[in-house]
Amino acid sequence: MMNLNTDQGITYSLSILQEVDYPEVLFWLGIKPLNFGDLHDLLANISNDRLITAIDDLQENYLISPIKQAGCFVLTKGGQELAHLITSLGVWGRQQMDENKGIDSVQVVMPDSLMNQKELLKYRSIVEQYI
Question: Which helix (H) or strand (E) holds 122?
């Protein structure tokens, strides 16, 4: 569970990002609203209980809407903003890692909201390199 005893914006943001699975949950819900099963399928190596805890915590912090729309989890405006930042940070970090190793970074093509679940699953291993 997140420790949100902070008086600085960056510390608050980092407290969310340091939780192991939270950035990835926010990333996938930033692509499109997903039901529990589809979200769980996109998150490799996370238990049902851990995902439930992550969703509950992110709802308590107003990043995931507490109201399910058509059985799906939806990001709040703040959650959408953080999801965009997570994507940018992940891409920047990967590019820096590659550059520091003298490797040319590959061009990043991220999934989009028009993709179905099968297409999104193809991106899971790619996304793990960034988020």
Answer: helix 117-127
Structure-token match 């902070």, residue found? 6
Q: Look at the pTM and tell me if it is higher than 0.90.
A: no
Q: Mind listing the pLDDT tens digit for each residue in 27-54?
A: 999 999 999 999 999 998 899 999 999 9
Query: How wide is the angle at C-alpha 7 spanned by C-alphas 5 and 10, nearest 5°?
Result: 100
- Measured CA to CA, the distance from residue 38 to residue 70 in angstroms comes to 14
**SS3 letters across 27-81:** HHHHHCCECHHHHHHHCCCCCHHHHHHHHHHHHHCCCECCCCECCEECECHHHHH
